[in-house]
Amino acid sequence: MRNYQGIGSRTFDAFNILFMIGLIFVTFYPLYHIFVVSISDGHSVLRGEVNIWPIRPNLDTYRLLLHDSAIIRSYGNTILYTTVGTFVNVCFTILCAYPLSKKEFHGRSFFTLMIVFTMFFSGGLIPSYLLVQKLNMINTMWALIVPGAISAWNMIVMRTFFQGIPNELFEAARIDGAQELLVLWRIVLPLSLPIIATISMFYAVGHWNSFFPALIYLDEKAKYPVQILLRNMVVMGQMSEQSQELSGPYAGVTSTNIKYAVIMIVIAPIIAIYPFIQKYFIKGVMIGSLKG
To answer: What is the pLDDT of residue 245?
Structure first.
């Protein structure tokens, strides 16, 4: 019986290892293929010769992008929108979730219900556009940030986390004469770093990958985020003015190289940042789910 359990356990472990290796390959290979295509010779890419290993690898595509003012400007716009948008999102979510987590707050059930209602019903695209227009936010950064300043789901997750903080801490702070804002700043926020990191990651990824609000609300190309350029390249086949004229040292670069290189540039920051906040991300998700 002991040998049978040993064989079964080893078989189960071997199956899990093989399954995880396959899962890692399925997840990693698309990113690897995008990178390989972006550094390979463009003519080899068009002939379909690039599969696993790069052919005549070079960095000409990335040099070309670094000299493309439109891409550099749009990349800066994306960083700006993501940074400001995430800061606004997290601040408003905390300020909304904290009072709704207090049992002594009168009307919290009504306000929570109104917020949850927006998860299932919305005014639609045209009323939203007219509202943004009436607020004079068309063709401004705030049109991408203010309409989605609070995510109802993220607010509920954060409120649930706040409710799990021991009430004795709040009572001790009130005995010492601390007001609610001081309690929030000195007690609640330091204890909420895991959930704040998780919610920040959610908001940041949403802003970084978003292109539809910019497509609707922005008129000037100088204000476009990089996702709009990527959409034009991938979906509509449009290229920036500089990358249409490929000659001289960039003669081996094709539109396919540029598309894949832009994709790598877009996803690289998220991939680079995630490992540093992974422990907070996992802890915040687990705590929020268990206390819900």
So the answer is: 45
pLDDT above 50 (res 244): no
Q: Of 239 and 40, which is predicted with more confidence?
A: 40
| Structural domain boundaries in the chain | 1-58, 59-291
Which class would CATH give 59-291? mainly alpha
Q: What angle do CA 162, 165, 170 make, to 5 degrees?
A: 100
Whether the per-residue pLDDT at 71 is higher than 90: the answer is no
**DSSP string computed for the chain:** -HHHHHHHHHHHHHHHHHHHHHHHHHHHHHHHHHHHHHHS-HHHHHTT--SSS-SS---HHHHHHHT-HHHHHHHHHHHHHHHHHHHHHHHHHHHHHHHHT-TTSTTHHHHHHHHHHHHH----HHHHHHHHHHTT-TTSTHHHHGGGS--HHHHHHHHHHHHTS-HHHHHHHHHTT--HHHHIIIIIHHHTHHHHHHHHHHHHHHHHH--HHHHHH---GGG--HHHHHHHHHTS----HHHHS--GGGTT--HHHHHHHHHHHHHHHHHHHHHHHHHHHHHHHHHHHHH-
Residue 130 has pLDDT above 50, yes or no: yes
pTM of the model: 0.81
